[in-house]
Prior knowledge:
Layout: H1 2-20, H2 28-35, H3 41-76, H4 88-103, H5 108-130, H6 139-163, H7 165-176, H8 184-187, H9 191-203, H10 205-211, H11 215-220, H12 225-247, H13 253-265, H14 269-294, H15 301-317, H16 320-323
Helix pairs in contact: 1-2, 1-3, 1-14, 3-9, 3-12, 3-13, 3-14, 4-5, 4-6, 4-7, 5-6, 5-12, 6-7, 9-12, 13-14, 13-15, 14-15
Amino acid sequence: MIAILLTAVLLPGALVASLAVGANPLSPDTVLATITGGGTAESHYVIFEQRLPRTAAAVAVGAGLGAAGALIQAFTRNPLADPGILGVNAGAAFFVAVGVGLWGMTDPVAHGWLACAGALLAALAVQTIGTSRRGPAEPTHLTMVGVAVGAVLSGLTTALVLTHPQAFDHMRSWNAGSLLDRGFEVSLPLMPLIGLGLLGAVLMTRALNSMSLGADVARAQGVAPHRLQHLVLGCLTLLAGGATAIAGPIAFVGLMVPHVARWTWGTDQRTIMTGSILLGALLMLLADVLGRLLVPGEMPVGLVTAFVGAPVLIVLVRRRRASTL
């Protein structure tokens, strides 16, 4: 209960900080006055044209990655699984590299749709290869196929970038994971996909609780493992693909946040999923704000999550309660 209240307090504070901190800092009073209809013309421009779209993108990306991490860790029963383990992020990066390098597509909106299409096709490829045998694939088999597909796509992306310097220049910011210049024209068309994925992930938590007891027990409780596998892959594609399409590859959020939620709220998938959504949004907001303060010209949020996530994850996985699924 204390953890829930603490998160409920920190999340609004992080939202205000995301609107107030930046190259043109605003006081919390100015932020609140502008949001409620007051403020100056300058504060209106800074908040509604620059920081509000960025804040909304951070919330959507963080919530999507947190839910995707909780989903894949619960389904594979692998505490080290993350949204990229099924090749989703690699597929998104490959399609962006193809679009930029071969077709000269440099518009951030086009990058978003290319990334989403790449994530979808990569997930379909993994699912098709992984379920070629009769019946649903074992989670470990599906994971191995995902790692292989992801490695192939990452190699192709590297080859494309190295042979097309123009692609390297345009992909440098996207590959680092950034929320800079992510206006509503980029994020709004993709937010419904993340919202649909969040709804599906929350609705599947009861079935994931049954699957944690084993496939036979799950069948006895009315859960169809084969159908659940398709639903998990579909929601994972919407969540990770949509988040990657908006901000580029973001490391550690999907891997770390479910551990924190499990450590804080226990092993029930319903509370883990809710906690992962809230903590994912909170972590992205704080990392984005920190990135604006660390260096002049700001540091990409993907680098901040890597610096913050690695030591935190090392501490958490050493705790038996946090790492046990």
